[in-house]
Amino acid sequence: MEENIRRRMRKAAWAFLLIEVLVLPCVYAAGQGDSLSLLFVGDLMQHDAQLDAARQPDGTFDYAPCFAEVDAEIRKADIAIGNLEVPLGGRPYSGYPAFSAPDEWLYAMRNAGFDVLLAANNHCLDRGTRGLVRTVEMFDSLGMDYAGIYRDSLERVKRYPLLVGKKGFRIAFLNYTYGTNGIPVDYPAIVNRIDREQIRKDILSARQMKPDAIIACMHWGIEYELLPEVSDRELAEWMLSLGVDHVIGSHPHVVQPVEIVDTLPDKVPHVVVYSLGNFISNMSRVHTDGGMMVKLLLKKSPGRAQLAGCGYSFVWTSRPALSGKRNFTVYPSDVRPEKLNGVEKSRMDLFLGNVRKFFKQYTKGIYEYFLERK
């Protein structure tokens, strides 16, 4: 049975690779700039146990081990995007329910290869408007692109939609949250909320930028639910009908299905990811200890860029209580077995078994891909 699973996994991986080979036989060889890879990951959390694990005797924090097994994949992407679900609100640092992560957490994400951080989520005001402003200041100090929160309306006009240029491509990112846990934002600061009239205006603004693609990153859904809400499906289709090319979701802390929508009048494929799940966290209830990376491959064409390939790759987070090691580590699904102890392997296999069974039932037209083992 295990060998049959391996065969199916290899077949799925080759299905993704075949797309790349068929549409990109000369791109890499000739060094042409007519393709762009985007990598999306889920929730980048920072719970108390993660703070304790990373804290050094001198009071600083070391997060280097957290991404060591996946940073090559992150850096390989032309643009890597993550959902930063904690503010950088300064001391005292804290985990759930009111987060504030050390600045070293942002440094670690930059060093791992992240290019864009999404900040419109229900925890962005955990340290109030002051924490929001400090988070923006930290983004600016490192020169990192971000979307979803702004110090004032002038800054939002200048920086939103977020337009990222790479390899001759221009990608417009939109980012919205369903709420902020009831915490109000103080004037003049702004948090992008899911409001159809505002989203419509922002999509129009994005289209006027003449981008190669518009990608809406949504913080939505119901926590721990494995299937998306009907309202989320309707919102996604509505945004696609207005000119958004792909929709990437987060918030439920579990992985939800991926859909390829090709039923709109334009007849082109659009990727809709309802929830990427947790990329790294201390959550341990069933389905929450892992997540996925989703890769999109765009290719230049007359007008807007076309989707040339896509795939998802599962990840799982180990923690000191399981590994006996000091820090948390994100592992790819095809990690070398000798890197895990028996308890870790059992927990990872449980997560992967559940999510693969679920995806076999609900996800069509997109396949799992695998990282090169380190």
Automatic annotation (TrEMBL):
<dbReference type="InterPro" id="IPR019079">
    <property type="entry name" value="Capsule_synth_CapA"/>
</dbReference>
<dbReference type="InterPro" id="IPR052169">
    <property type="entry name" value="CW_Biosynth-Accessory"/>
</dbReference>
<protein>
    <submittedName>
        <fullName>Capsule synthesis protein, CapA</fullName>
    </submittedName>
</protein>
<feature type="domain" description="Capsule synthesis protein CapA">
    <location>
        <begin position="37"/>
        <end position="283"/>
    </location>
</feature>
<dbReference type="InterPro" id="IPR029052">
    <property type="entry name" value="Metallo-depent_PP-like"/>
</dbReference>
<dbReference type="Pfam" id="PF09587">
    <property type="entry name" value="PGA_cap"/>
</dbReference>
<comment type="similarity">
    <text>Belongs to the CapA family.</text>
</comment>
